[in-house]
Amino acid sequence: SRSIRLAVIPGDGIGQEVVPQGLKVLSAVLPQGVKLETQEYDLGARRWHVTGETLPDAELESLKNHDAILLGAIGDPSVPSGVLERGLLLKLRFVFDHYVNLRPSKLFPNTATPLAGRPDIDFVVVREGTEGPYTGNGGSLRTGTPAEVATEVSVNTAYGVERVVRDAYARAAARPRKKLTLVHKTNVLAHAGHLWKNIFDKVGAEFPEVTTDYLHVDAATIFFVTQPERFDVIVTDNLFGDILTDLAAAVTGGIGLAASGNINPSGTFPSMFEPVHGSAPDIAGTGKADPTATVLSVALLLQHLGYEAEAARIETAVAQDLAERGDTPRTTDEIGDALAARVSG
Amino acid sequence: SRSIRLAVIPGDGIGQEVVPQGLKVLSAVLPQGVKLETQEYDLGARRWHVTGETLPDAELESLKNHDAILLGAIGDPSVPSGVLERGLLLKLRFVFDHYVNLRPSKLFPNTATPLAGRPDIDFVVVREGTEGPYTGNGGSLRTGTPAEVATEVSVNTAYGVERVVRDAYARAAARPRKKLTLVHKTNVLAHAGHLWKNIFDKVGAEFPEVTTDYLHVDAATIFFVTQPERFDVIVTDNLFGDILTDLAAAVTGGIGLAASGNINPSGTFPSMFEPVHGSAPDIAGTGKADPTATVLSVALLLQHLGYEAEAARIETAVAQDLAERGDTPRTTDEIGDALAARVSG
Ligand SMILES: CC(C)[C@H](C(=O)O)[C@@H](O)C(=O)O
Ligand SMILES: CC(C)[C@H](C(=O)O)[C@@H](O)C(=O)O
User: Isopropylmalate dehydrogenase-like domain: from which residue to which, for each copy (chains A, B) (predicted)?
Assistant: First the structure.
């Protein structure tokens, strides 16, 4: 009989509140025969304050024994900026080689968008997850003096770019519109730009059915607000992908609905699924957090593990829930209950 | 008697069409006693095709003998990407030490914005112009092979960051709301982020009247579309500034209205004023280009040279022209004429 061994990292702030809702919906949607084994990991701000640890080796090893990871959110104002981001979240993405950071954007009916005229938005950003400006390369010299020099090195390899670009082509080929847009800044970042563009063109020859486009990152932000319907699949580097997917979340009704998967397509390591939003300490504990992004991340998780029908049921449930919701605000728990009821109904 | 020695680089595509309108309005607004001496430089795609030159030393020397430079747009699909951008536009910014790249964003009445609800937008981005990921540092190894590694190095110096941050504080202090937001990605780009944040805090002590804020660049894009009224002055690095100002132009009615100044505050070298838009080869020659961004760049030029009243007259003229325009599309020339008439009237 089948089973899912799931590692759960609720993390900080509203992460603690949205993750239980994701699990609730996951349990409700899974077929009878599938056993769900969850193991919770106490990682994040609390742990760091108590032990000074972000992600100890033993935990990292133990995480490998799972089919997937569900993560809530990481980060708290009480911890110096970057400590948990780099020591925990990015460490997981890098060590588990999550080179496909998958971030779908869809404007659901009956959701608020800051854009006038409600354009049709349904695209996926394939953000590279293991290289680029996120490697931590660089350093500083004469730190804290008037003669300081600080550098950040964006590292891009043919190996790393080709695998994510090929993944993006395959995703584009599997969608009805079959369009892939590369976003970079080749006219200024010429070394990395050349590498990305060359590989984009080369791999494109394997996917003649996919229409391609290229946009500089600055121009891409314009189209995100003036013509988002022009996008189908986007492939881009780690930093541009970070920026563009927050913007994408904003135009599709907010960060409360944006799901993501940090995927290791080879399956060597567990993939990790998390809402794009952060720990939101300002609303933590109030019951106001929207668990929908986490629930949609659970759908990505199911898709990744081959439970296509169950993933689709969650997406339909979310679309219906948004379409039919009234004006009365609901708590985190109420939204989770409503979604769980829909997927099991 | 006073005079303005102006270097003019119309450049490519619609640059050739909008620059004459900028000059028309400049002539119309200048007081009787001020002599305008213009010298045109033939730089851009045509020149490169004919001579292979982007910016010869002799021209660079000659450009120094001017009080300011008015530039239209640079770039053409017939020239390999990056050649003119780096060999001409960025070279001017770097050699003339244009460390303040000033980009105001204002939502004028009666202009289209993709944002529902028409928020109040009136902010200025102070984009660093001479360092960061724009230095061309980095390179590639085993280029074109499956083992290629390509790097881009963002170079940040205390010298470079402090001067632009101080300029931004001074601009914030001179505005009614007196608010300065630093945008960076300190939680990931920790070396450069630390430098920027430290200097931002240190210089802030000299400006106790200025309220400060910090945002990660990804979060900043969200607020650009959901709450742009929260911004007054923004200071950020070269690449983040590039991205954010295109987005800012998009939400304030389009790239056709976005002006910029590449400023060398010390006056050692001439400052350069240019619309944020590019050469737009698709509409070049059709008379459809909106010269308003160039005309507003002329206002920034006048402000920089101390002609405050004249700069203000141009801004008022643009606001009135936009408010009173009808539905009939106007040509580049007609808009230039209308603005020239308003400023001289
Ligand atoms: C928290 C931060 C390190 C992270 C990132 O920059 O990748 C976040 O913004 C995201 O997009 O998942
Ligand atoms: C053309 C390009 C090099 C330039 C830049 O990236 O600075 C442009 O996008 C701008 O913003 O002025």
Answer: 5-339
**Cβ distance B73 to B278 under 8 Å?**
yes
Instruction: Considering the domain delimited by B1-99+260-345, tell me its CATH architecture.
Output: 3-Layer(aba) Sandwich (3.40)
Tokens encoding A307: 């439970």
If you write DSSP's letter for every residue of A315-332 in order, what string do you get? HHHHHHHHHH--SS---H
Domain locations along chain A:
1-102+259-345, 113-252
DSSP state of A185: -
pLDDT at B38: 98
E strands within chain A? Answer: 3-11, 35-40, 68-73, 100-106, 122-128, 138-141, 149-157, 179-184, 211-216, 233-236, 259-263, 271-275
Q: Does the pLDDT of residue A345 top 80, yes or no?
A: no
Query: For residue range B217-275, what is the model confidence (pLDDT) as tens digits?
Result: 999 999 999 999 999 999 999 999 999 999 999 999 878 899 999 999 999 999 999 99
Superfamily of domain A113-252: Isopropylmalate Dehydrogenase (3.40.718.10)
Q: What average pLDDT does the segment A112-139 reach?
A: 96
Q: How far is B155 from chain A (nearest CA, A)?
A: 5
Q: Matching CATH topology for B1-99+260-345 and B113-252?
A: yes
CB A168 within 8 A of CB B158: no
Give the residue from B90, B87, B53, B73 showing the smallest Cα distance to B13.
B73
Q: Where is the binding site, in residues of B?
A: 93, 103, 127, 218, 242, 246, 278-290
Contact of B116 with chain A, judged by CB distance below 8 Å, is answered with: yes
Domain A1-102+259-345's class?
Answer: alpha beta
pTM of this prediction? 0.97
d(CA A203, CA A197): 10
Q: How far apart are CA A196 and CA A207, in angstroms?
A: 17
| Contact by Cβ (8 Å): B304, B261 | yes
CB proximity B157 to A under 8 Å = yes
Rounded to a whole number, what is the distance in Å from the CA of A146 to chain B's nearest CA?
5
Q: With pLDDT > 70 as the criterion, what percentage of chain A qualifies?
A: 99
Quote the distance between the C-alpha of residue A53 and its chain's center.
24
By three-state DSSP, how is residue B306 classified?
coil
Using CB atoms within 10 A of its CB, is residue A104 exposed (0-12), middle (13-18) or buried (19+)?
Answer: buried
Burial class (CB within 10 angstroms; exposed 0-12, middle 13-18, buried 19+) of A281: middle
